[in-house]
Amino acid sequence: MVAKTAGQPATPGSELPEHPDFLWENPIPKRNYDVVIVGGGGHGLATAHYLVKNHGITNIAVIERGWLAGGNMARNTTLIRSNYLWDASAAIYEHSLKLWEGLEEDLDYPILFSQRGVLNLAHTQQDVRDSHRRVEANKLNGIDAEWVDTERVRELCPIVNISSDIRYPILGATYQPRAGIAKHDYVGWAFARRVSQAGVHLIQDTEVTGFLTEGDRVVGVRTNRGDIGAGSVALAAAGHTSTLTDTLGIRVPIQSHPLQALVSELLEPVHPTIVMSNAVHVYVSQAHKGELVMGAGVDAYTGYGQRGSFHIIERQMAAAVELFPVFARAHLLRTWGGVVDVTPDASPIVGLTPYENLFLNCGWGTGGFKATPGVGDVFAHTIATGSPHELVKPFGLDRFVTGHLVDEHGAAAVAH
């Protein structure tokens, strides 16, 4: 850690911890593994961690076509919360939030988890009614949710514009105090370091192009570096999942959309919590180094593009300045795009497939980062036992046949 000179302001980011000399190995792939995880993002790495920790399985390969945690893990806005509407969603996200609260000790690595609370603003009477409904539903599920009036919004975030003379005046908000942010690259590196220490092979720059099958079993994966045998195969490849399952004739109802975000220049601490608005269509937090991190909804078109576009940026900035006039002179520093995989009911797909040892984890939309430890834990259980964990039973692929959907469009904030 860099010390601050007495009387001098600290350099932005100087309080961030130094990284250790060792993070992970880059091994030569073996011919066979007990479990092959396709996708070296947060979910793939977390799944490997809990397979090791909770089930004693270490003969694991995590295969990543790019670099570890370089996809959505590196391209999100790091918001962590559990205040979803439906029981099934609240349960999995609350499970994850509880794991976040002990994750730094579990991984023995600083992930800078900061529980600063999240405000979901209400701008219309319909917003108010929906917000009260969600707060009461959250309370029934044991989640720390409350309704706050306009004055309390101002107390929690003094720079938000609570004037009644604006296009979308703030009538109040839902508030979850335990919500927060974490430093996403540190989270990815922490999981990778932990599982590498346990003997898990992290194989980067290797693309899975298909599968080896025998009857109703998958016995391996085809890669651009040769075939690799597997006792079980777990897909954690987000929006690219359907391109893989198509090779097996399994239809997975996900669409991939670009999701853009941006950060400002470094600023002094001015934004103490996280603020989200459906109507104005923006969410804002302040990162550890001081950048304002802003996101909005997904782009309407489908695609795998990972870049921003000017009209979206213009709209995000206009929304942010309406809520926070103090940001009007802040400079935009960087923009980027991620790829979010969205299902018809805005809920994930986790569990079994028609192949007895092939498992699915995809369709998280914008909820993927916040679910990282939670889904890693329950997905590992599903792989190790061959049966869906209780928390993911509602999210099986078969719900699109049975009609038992978990429709979270209305409570997933701004992004679906």
TrEMBL record:
Nucleotide-binding found in the keyword field: yes
Subcellular location: Cytoplasm
GO molecular function: nucleotide binding; sarcosine oxidase activity
Chain ranges of the FAD dependent oxidoreductase domain: 34-381
Pfam families: DAO
E.C. numbers: 1.5.3.1
GO process terms (BP): tetrahydrofolate metabolic process
Protein known as: Sarcosine oxidase subunit beta
Species the sequence originates in: Cryobacterium roopkundense
